């Protein structure tokens, strides 16, 4: 038996979205994209507006897409699935946003959300590859290995302001412990610095102070 919904005189946002089969995020995106007009009756929509949207519902559905705005991890998982065989490192979403290829859409519980509509239509595999390489995030221990330094030498780079963390996360073991993460592109930039004799730094014997200790401390 087919159930027919009774037509209403006006519709609130929940009723509007439910009756045309749009998820809450799809309805909000349709409003943002002006695919659905602003409420014309004191925060509610008239039946006239509702029926007008129903008449072009297929176009509205196509325009809002099927991917919600998501956090970095889900965005990177989506890109890895979309570009099969491509390694998408943690930090790729933020790097794409930094390069103006992936808009941000606010936050959820302190975490940046990335535009699902852009993700759904993203086709530039080369740009994702570049962003994955440059945006790859490392813990301090891993970043120290990337640069081929001792931990004390890495500390001198931080003290001198030649390097700073790009993002933070919390430890998987101790949720209250903040872990600073360092971006590959920043490590590459430091590695190219003409201020540092890297051969001399790496040749410093264990237990001896390296030339990095002579770097001036960054003014706060």
Question: How would the blueprint of this fold be written?
Answer:
Blueprint (H helix, E strand, L loop, with lengths): L9 E2 L1 H8 L3 H9 L12 E2 H9 L1 H8 L7 H11 L9 H7 L5 E5 L2 E4 L1 H5 L4 H11 L1 E2 L1 H8 L3 H9 L7 E4 L7 E6 H8 L6 H6 L17
Antiparallel strand pairs: 1-2, 3-4, 5-7, 6-7
Helix pairs in contact: 2-4, 6-8
Short description:
By secondary structure, the protein is of the alpha+beta class. It has helices spanning 13-20, 24-32, 47-55, 57-64, 72-82, 92-98, 116-120, 125-135, 140-147, 151-159, 184-191, 198-203, and strands at 10-11, 45-46, 104-108, 111-114, 137-138, 167-170, 178-183.
What number of structural domains do the residues give? Answer: 3
Shape: elongated
Question: Helical segment tally?
Answer: 12
Beta content comes to 5-15%
Mean pLDDT across residues: 93
Please list the strands of the largest sheet in the order they lie side by side. Answer: 5-7-6
* Poorly predicted residue ranges: none
Derived structural class: alpha+beta
Characterize the structure shown.
With 220 residues, the protein is an alpha+beta fold. It has 3 domains: 10-64, no CATH class; 72-135, no CATH class; 137-214. It is 45% helix and 11% strand. It has helices at residues 13-20, 24-32, 47-55, 57-64, 72-82, 92-98, 116-120, 125-135, 140-147, 151-159, 184-191, 198-203; strands at 10-11, 45-46, 104-108, 111-114, 137-138, 167-170, 178-183. The strands form 3 sheets. The protein has a 3-stranded antiparallel sheet. A two-stranded antiparallel sheet has the order 1-2. Strand 3 (104-108) and strand 4 form a beta hairpin. The radius of gyration is 25 Å and the shape is elongated. The model has no long low-confidence stretch (mean pLDDT 93).
């Amino acid at each position: 038996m087919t159930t027919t919904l009774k037509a209403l005189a006006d519709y609130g946002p929940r009723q509007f979205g439910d009756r045309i089969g749009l998820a809450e995020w799809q309805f909000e995106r349709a409003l943002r994209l002006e695919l659905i007009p602003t409420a014309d009756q004191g925060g509610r929509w008239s039946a006239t507006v509702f029926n007008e949207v129903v008449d072009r519902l297929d176009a509205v559905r196509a325009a809002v897409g099927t991917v919600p705005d998501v956090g970095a991890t889900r965005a990177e998982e989506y890109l890895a699935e979309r570009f099969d065989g491509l390694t998408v490192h943690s930090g790729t979403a933020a790097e794409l946003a930094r390069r103006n290829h992936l808009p941000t859409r606010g936050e959820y519980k302190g975490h940046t959300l990335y535009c699902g509509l852009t993700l759904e239509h993203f086709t530039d595999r080369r740009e994702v590859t570049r962003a994955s390489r440059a945006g790859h995030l490392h813990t301090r221990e891993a970043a120290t290995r990337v640069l081929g330094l001792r931990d004390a030498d890495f500390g001198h780079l931080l003290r001198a302001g030649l390097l700073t963390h790009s993002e933070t996360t919390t430890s998987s073991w101790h949720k209250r412990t903040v872990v600073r993460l360092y971006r590959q592109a920043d490590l590459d930039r430091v590695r190219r610095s003409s201020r540092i004799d890297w051969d001399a730094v790496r040749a410093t014997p264990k237990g001896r102070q390296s030339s990095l200790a002579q770097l001036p401390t960054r003014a706060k």
